[in-house]
Amino acid sequence: MADLRKVQQVVQDIYDIKIQGATNIAKSAFQILMDELERQTFTDSIALREFLIPAMHMLEKARPTEPMMFNGMAYITAQIKDETLPLQTLLPLTTDAVKCYLGMISSTAEKAIQNGVGLLNYGDSVLTHCHSSSAIKTIIANKAGGKDFLVYNTETRPLYQWHKTAKDFLEAWMKITMVVDSSAPFILDRNDPFGLDIDAVIIGCDAIKLNGDIINKVGSYSIAHAAYDNKIPVYVAGNLLKTDVRDSIQIETRSWTEVWEDKPEGIDIINFAFDQVPAKLLTAIITEFGIIKPNEVRAVVKKEYPWMK
Q: Domain range spanning residue 96?
Protein backbone atom coordinates (compact mmCIF):
# COMPACT_ATOMS: atom_id res chain seq x y z
CA MET A 1 0.00 0.00 0.00
CA ALA A 2 1.33 3.44 -0.97
CA ASP A 3 2.78 5.53 1.86
CA LEU A 4 1.27 9.01 1.47
CA ARG A 5 1.63 10.28 5.02
CA LYS A 6 4.36 12.82 4.39
CA VAL A 7 2.59 14.04 1.25
CA GLN A 8 -0.60 14.47 3.28
CA GLN A 9 1.27 16.63 5.80
CA VAL A 10 2.45 18.98 3.03
CA VAL A 11 -1.10 19.08 1.66
CA GLN A 12 -2.36 20.11 5.11
CA ASP A 13 0.35 22.75 5.48
CA ILE A 14 -0.64 24.25 2.13
CA TYR A 15 -4.32 24.33 3.10
CA ASP A 16 -3.51 25.86 6.50
CA ILE A 17 -1.41 28.59 4.79
CA LYS A 18 1.70 27.41 6.64
CA ILE A 19 3.15 27.19 3.14
CA GLN A 20 2.07 30.22 1.13
CA GLY A 21 2.80 31.96 -2.14
CA ALA A 22 2.35 30.24 -5.50
CA THR A 23 6.07 29.64 -6.05
CA ASN A 24 6.66 28.33 -2.53
CA ILE A 25 3.63 26.04 -2.78
CA ALA A 26 4.85 24.57 -6.08
CA LYS A 27 8.37 24.11 -4.72
CA SER A 28 7.06 22.34 -1.63
CA ALA A 29 4.86 20.05 -3.71
CA PHE A 30 7.63 18.90 -6.01
CA GLN A 31 10.20 18.73 -3.23
CA ILE A 32 8.05 16.28 -1.24
CA LEU A 33 7.65 14.17 -4.37
CA MET A 34 11.42 14.18 -4.81
CA ASP A 35 12.04 13.34 -1.16
CA GLU A 36 9.56 10.47 -1.18
CA LEU A 37 10.85 9.03 -4.46
CA GLU A 38 14.29 8.88 -2.84
CA ARG A 39 13.09 7.68 0.57
CA GLN A 40 10.62 4.97 -0.36
CA THR A 41 11.36 1.56 -1.85
CA PHE A 42 9.19 0.44 -4.76
CA THR A 43 8.98 -3.23 -5.76
CA ASP A 44 7.99 -2.54 -9.37
CA SER A 45 6.66 0.17 -11.68
CA ILE A 46 3.08 -0.52 -10.59
CA ALA A 47 3.97 0.23 -6.97
CA LEU A 48 5.70 3.45 -8.04
CA ARG A 49 2.66 4.62 -9.99
CA GLU A 50 0.37 3.64 -7.09
CA PHE A 51 2.30 6.15 -4.98
CA LEU A 52 2.92 8.85 -7.58
CA ILE A 53 -0.52 9.29 -9.15
CA PRO A 54 -2.47 9.64 -5.84
CA ALA A 55 0.28 11.86 -4.43
CA MET A 56 0.05 14.25 -7.40
CA HIS A 57 -3.75 14.35 -7.18
CA MET A 58 -3.63 15.12 -3.46
CA LEU A 59 -1.18 17.97 -3.97
CA GLU A 60 -3.22 19.43 -6.83
CA LYS A 61 -6.33 19.54 -4.65
CA ALA A 62 -4.52 21.30 -1.79
CA ARG A 63 -4.97 24.67 -3.48
CA PRO A 64 -7.24 24.99 -6.54
CA THR A 65 -5.63 28.21 -7.78
CA GLU A 66 -2.07 27.02 -8.46
CA PRO A 67 -1.41 26.36 -12.17
CA MET A 68 2.34 26.39 -11.55
CA MET A 69 1.74 23.17 -9.65
CA PHE A 70 -0.76 21.79 -12.19
CA ASN A 71 1.57 22.52 -15.10
CA GLY A 72 4.39 20.73 -13.30
CA MET A 73 2.22 17.67 -12.70
CA ALA A 74 1.30 17.69 -16.40
CA TYR A 75 4.99 17.94 -17.30
CA ILE A 76 5.86 14.92 -15.15
CA THR A 77 2.90 12.92 -16.44
CA ALA A 78 3.99 13.55 -20.03
CA GLN A 79 7.47 12.20 -19.29
CA ILE A 80 6.19 8.90 -17.86
CA LYS A 81 3.14 8.24 -20.05
CA ASP A 82 4.60 4.95 -21.36
CA GLU A 83 3.04 2.45 -18.94
CA THR A 84 5.25 -0.41 -20.17
CA LEU A 85 8.41 1.08 -18.65
CA PRO A 86 10.14 -1.17 -16.08
CA LEU A 87 10.97 0.21 -12.63
CA GLN A 88 14.68 0.61 -13.40
CA THR A 89 13.73 3.00 -16.21
CA LEU A 90 10.63 4.60 -14.70
CA LEU A 91 12.12 5.60 -11.34
CA PRO A 92 15.08 7.64 -12.66
CA LEU A 93 12.86 9.09 -15.40
CA THR A 94 10.33 10.27 -12.81
CA THR A 95 13.02 11.61 -10.50
CA ASP A 96 14.67 13.51 -13.34
CA ALA A 97 11.33 15.03 -14.40
CA VAL A 98 10.60 16.26 -10.86
CA LYS A 99 14.14 17.60 -10.48
CA CYS A 100 13.94 19.32 -13.87
CA TYR A 101 10.71 21.10 -13.02
CA LEU A 102 12.02 22.16 -9.61
CA GLY A 103 15.02 23.66 -11.38
CA MET A 104 12.71 25.35 -13.88
CA ILE A 105 10.75 27.00 -11.07
CA SER A 106 13.89 28.44 -9.49
CA SER A 107 15.65 29.55 -12.67
CA THR A 108 12.60 31.21 -14.22
CA ALA A 109 11.72 32.97 -10.95
CA GLU A 110 15.23 34.42 -10.75
CA LYS A 111 15.07 35.62 -14.36
CA ALA A 112 11.73 37.30 -13.74
CA ILE A 113 13.07 39.09 -10.66
CA GLN A 114 16.05 40.44 -12.59
CA ASN A 115 13.77 41.58 -15.41
CA GLY A 116 11.89 43.70 -12.87
CA VAL A 117 14.95 45.71 -11.89
CA GLY A 118 14.62 49.29 -13.13
CA LEU A 119 10.87 49.65 -12.65
CA LEU A 120 11.22 51.81 -9.53
CA ASN A 121 12.96 55.16 -9.22
CA TYR A 122 14.78 56.73 -6.28
CA GLY A 123 12.28 58.06 -3.75
CA ASP A 124 9.28 56.16 -5.15
CA SER A 125 6.50 54.85 -2.95
CA VAL A 126 5.28 51.37 -3.89
CA LEU A 127 2.26 49.42 -2.65
CA THR A 128 2.18 45.63 -2.45
CA HIS A 129 -0.49 43.21 -1.28
CA CYS A 130 -0.40 39.83 0.49
CA HIS A 131 2.75 37.68 0.62
CA SER A 132 4.35 37.07 -2.75
CA SER A 133 7.99 36.01 -2.80
CA SER A 134 8.20 37.13 -6.44
CA ALA A 135 6.87 40.64 -5.72
CA ILE A 136 8.96 41.00 -2.58
CA LYS A 137 12.19 39.91 -4.29
CA THR A 138 11.48 42.16 -7.27
CA ILE A 139 11.06 45.18 -4.98
CA ILE A 140 14.17 44.26 -2.97
CA ALA A 141 16.16 43.77 -6.19
CA ASN A 142 15.31 47.34 -7.17
CA LYS A 143 16.69 48.55 -3.82
CA ALA A 144 19.84 46.51 -4.37
CA GLY A 145 20.30 48.51 -7.54
CA GLY A 146 21.08 51.53 -5.40
CA LYS A 147 17.60 53.03 -5.11
CA ASP A 148 15.76 53.87 -1.93
CA PHE A 149 11.98 54.01 -1.64
CA LEU A 150 9.03 53.45 0.67
CA VAL A 151 6.95 50.28 0.73
CA TYR A 152 3.30 50.26 1.76
CA ASN A 153 2.09 46.80 2.66
CA THR A 154 -1.56 45.77 3.18
CA GLU A 155 -2.51 43.71 6.23
CA THR A 156 -4.13 41.02 4.04
CA ARG A 157 -7.06 39.71 6.04
CA PRO A 158 -8.28 37.38 7.40
CA LEU A 159 -4.96 35.62 8.08
CA TYR A 160 -2.75 38.73 8.10
CA GLN A 161 -0.11 37.47 5.69
CA TRP A 162 1.44 40.92 5.71
CA HIS A 163 3.32 39.88 8.86
CA LYS A 164 5.50 37.56 6.81
CA THR A 165 5.87 40.12 4.02
CA ALA A 166 6.89 42.84 6.46
CA LYS A 167 9.52 40.60 8.06
CA ASP A 168 11.01 39.83 4.64
CA PHE A 169 11.29 43.55 3.88
CA LEU A 170 12.71 44.37 7.31
CA GLU A 171 15.45 41.78 6.79
CA ALA A 172 16.38 43.70 3.64
CA TRP A 173 16.41 46.99 5.60
CA MET A 174 13.39 48.35 3.75
CA LYS A 175 11.15 51.14 5.07
CA ILE A 176 7.70 49.61 5.67
CA THR A 177 4.30 51.10 6.44
CA MET A 178 1.28 48.85 6.94
CA VAL A 179 -2.12 50.00 5.71
CA VAL A 180 -5.49 48.48 6.57
CA ASP A 181 -6.95 46.46 3.70
CA SER A 182 -10.02 48.66 3.31
CA SER A 183 -7.92 51.82 3.02
CA ALA A 184 -5.59 50.54 0.29
CA PRO A 185 -7.71 51.79 -2.64
CA PHE A 186 -8.17 55.15 -0.90
CA ILE A 187 -4.46 55.85 -0.50
CA LEU A 188 -4.06 55.30 -4.25
CA ASP A 189 -6.37 58.25 -4.90
CA ARG A 190 -4.38 61.22 -6.19
CA ASN A 191 -6.68 63.42 -4.11
CA ASP A 192 -5.75 61.55 -0.92
CA PRO A 193 -5.48 64.30 1.70
CA PHE A 194 -2.66 62.45 3.48
CA GLY A 195 -0.44 62.82 0.44
CA LEU A 196 1.00 59.31 0.30
CA ASP A 197 1.41 59.71 -3.45
CA ILE A 198 1.92 56.05 -4.42
CA ASP A 199 4.02 55.75 -7.59
CA ALA A 200 3.53 52.07 -8.42
CA VAL A 201 1.78 48.88 -7.36
CA ILE A 202 3.68 45.59 -7.53
CA ILE A 203 1.79 42.43 -6.64
CA GLY A 204 2.31 38.75 -7.24
CA CYS A 205 -0.23 36.31 -8.64
CA ASP A 206 -1.30 32.73 -8.17
CA ALA A 207 -2.55 32.30 -11.72
CA ILE A 208 -2.32 34.05 -15.08
CA LYS A 209 -5.11 33.59 -17.59
CA LEU A 210 -4.28 33.33 -21.29
CA ASN A 211 -6.16 36.59 -21.88
CA GLY A 212 -3.88 38.40 -19.40
CA ASP A 213 -6.24 38.47 -16.41
CA ILE A 214 -4.61 37.38 -13.16
CA ILE A 215 -5.85 35.70 -10.00
CA ASN A 216 -4.36 36.91 -6.73
CA LYS A 217 -5.21 37.33 -3.06
CA VAL A 218 -8.64 38.87 -2.54
CA GLY A 219 -8.35 42.65 -2.45
CA SER A 220 -6.16 42.79 -5.54
CA TYR A 221 -9.11 43.76 -7.75
CA SER A 222 -10.00 46.89 -5.79
CA ILE A 223 -6.35 47.94 -5.52
CA ALA A 224 -5.78 47.51 -9.26
CA HIS A 225 -8.99 49.36 -10.07
CA ALA A 226 -8.08 52.33 -7.88
CA ALA A 227 -4.57 52.43 -9.36
CA TYR A 228 -5.96 52.29 -12.90
CA ASP A 229 -8.38 55.15 -12.21
CA ASN A 230 -5.48 57.23 -10.88
CA LYS A 231 -3.07 56.34 -13.68
CA ILE A 232 -0.72 54.50 -11.31
CA PRO A 233 1.07 51.57 -12.98
CA VAL A 234 0.20 48.07 -11.74
CA TYR A 235 2.92 45.49 -12.28
CA VAL A 236 2.43 41.78 -11.67
CA ALA A 237 5.43 39.64 -10.73
CA GLY A 238 4.21 36.60 -12.62
CA ASN A 239 6.28 33.66 -13.79
CA LEU A 240 4.54 32.22 -16.88
CA LEU A 241 4.71 28.73 -15.39
CA LYS A 242 1.66 30.03 -13.51
CA THR A 243 -0.39 30.30 -16.69
CA ASP A 244 -3.80 28.63 -16.50
CA VAL A 245 -3.70 27.01 -19.93
CA ARG A 246 -6.64 24.77 -19.03
CA ASP A 247 -8.82 27.77 -18.13
CA SER A 248 -9.96 25.72 -15.16
CA ILE A 249 -8.92 27.75 -12.11
CA GLN A 250 -11.76 28.52 -9.73
CA ILE A 251 -11.82 31.24 -7.07
CA GLU A 252 -11.27 29.53 -3.71
CA THR A 253 -13.72 30.18 -0.88
CA ARG A 254 -12.37 29.35 2.57
CA SER A 255 -14.04 28.56 5.88
CA TRP A 256 -16.01 31.34 7.61
CA THR A 257 -14.25 30.38 10.85
CA GLU A 258 -11.17 32.28 9.64
CA VAL A 259 -13.26 35.45 9.81
CA TRP A 260 -15.38 34.87 12.94
CA GLU A 261 -14.73 31.64 14.77
CA ASP A 262 -17.63 31.95 17.25
CA LYS A 263 -20.09 33.90 15.10
CA PRO A 264 -23.73 34.10 16.28
CA GLU A 265 -26.38 32.01 14.57
CA GLY A 266 -28.11 33.61 11.60
CA ILE A 267 -25.03 35.25 10.05
CA ASP A 268 -23.63 34.01 6.75
CA ILE A 269 -20.01 34.81 5.87
CA ILE A 270 -18.43 34.70 2.43
CA ASN A 271 -14.67 34.31 2.71
CA PHE A 272 -13.11 34.56 -0.75
CA ALA A 273 -9.41 33.76 -0.73
CA PHE A 274 -8.74 35.25 -4.17
CA ASP A 275 -10.20 37.55 -6.79
CA GLN A 276 -9.62 38.05 -10.50
CA VAL A 277 -8.05 41.22 -11.89
CA PRO A 278 -8.96 42.04 -15.52
CA ALA A 279 -6.07 42.51 -17.93
CA LYS A 280 -7.21 46.05 -18.76
CA LEU A 281 -6.31 47.17 -15.21
CA LEU A 282 -2.74 45.88 -15.46
CA THR A 283 0.21 47.78 -16.87
CA ALA A 284 2.50 44.80 -17.43
CA ILE A 285 3.51 41.36 -16.20
CA ILE A 286 7.11 40.82 -15.11
CA THR A 287 8.05 37.39 -16.49
CA GLU A 288 11.08 35.23 -17.11
CA PHE A 289 10.90 36.34 -20.75
CA GLY A 290 10.86 40.04 -19.99
CA ILE A 291 8.20 42.59 -19.09
CA ILE A 292 5.21 41.89 -21.30
CA LYS A 293 1.77 43.35 -21.85
CA PRO A 294 -1.13 41.23 -20.56
CA ASN A 295 -2.41 40.68 -24.11
CA GLU A 296 0.92 39.07 -25.03
CA VAL A 297 0.60 36.17 -22.57
CA ARG A 298 -0.98 33.69 -24.98
CA ALA A 299 1.62 34.22 -27.70
CA VAL A 300 4.61 34.05 -25.34
CA VAL A 301 3.37 30.87 -23.62
CA LYS A 302 2.69 29.21 -26.96
CA LYS A 303 6.22 30.03 -28.14
CA GLU A 304 8.21 29.36 -24.96
CA TYR A 305 6.20 26.52 -23.34
CA PRO A 306 4.72 24.45 -26.19
CA TRP A 307 4.36 21.47 -23.80
CA MET A 308 1.93 23.45 -21.67
CA LYS A 309 -1.45 22.24 -22.96
A: 5-112
